[in-house]
Amino acid sequence: MKKEIGTLLLLSTVIFSGCQSDQKEERVSKETHSPTHIDTTLIGTSDNQEVRLYKKGDGVKLEINGHVKDFNWNNPSDTGTEPQVFYIDMTEDGKEEAVIIIQTGRGTGLDNYDIHIVDQDLQEIKVPYYEEIVAQHIESNVVKKDHETLTITGRALGKEYHFDYHVDPELELQQDELGFGGITIYYLENQKIQLTLAASVFPIYVADFHITYKYNHTKNEFMIDQIEVAPIQL
After folding, report:
1. Phi and psi, residue 134, nearest 5°
2. How many whole angstroms separate alpha carbon 150 and alpha carbon 223?
3. Residue numbers of the domain that contains 213
4. Residues 212 and 155 both lie in one domain
5. How far apart are CA 197 and CA 182, in angstroms?
6. How much is the pLDDT for 77?
7. pLDDT by residue (tens digit) across 169-198?
8. Is 50 left (phi over 0), alpha (psi -120 to 50) or beta?
9. Do residues 206 and 150 make contact, with C-beta atoms less than 8 angstroms apart?
């Protein structure tokens, strides 16, 4: 009889332990997929709430259909412009991706945005930033033709461009090629990533480079498709 009682007690202990384990696993699972226990602030959502973007101290927290992941992106600064959040099929595979556009800098002669594309498995898809575009696809040369004219020439994605720009005769030319980085504006158009990249001859902007991206299925990343150069007319 004592042996039977001992067996029952042991069995009860195992069952109770198993229940505790299941409850613990369920609790951990819920915490993994919920940002509410973290010190976060909701700063943007897609139209139908599939995507939620949270600001946290050392980056952001992104939620897609209830699944959550931290990213060490540039933290949205207090620029007065809310992040843009979309849920769109950007890769033409029948599945939507999260698209996040964040303004990271704003001021006199300064307007900067970052863009991030994240699939439903919370994996970020590469989008080349302007430094890589300029290094690989843009060549330029700037000379002062006379006391009030700059002659600007170059190549963008293999296509040549040439234009003159009238400047203050007092301008002292301190560079022999275009400068980039002051204005980098990302936006979406017809489910395509677009970038307006302003080119400068310090301290003036002389042209806009309008860049269109396309998705490369083999490399699973976005690449440059077109670059159009538009001189800024005074």
Report:
1. -65, -45
2. 32
3. 130-231
4. yes
5. 8
6. 66
7. 999 999 999 999 999 999 999 999 999 999
8. alpha
9. yes
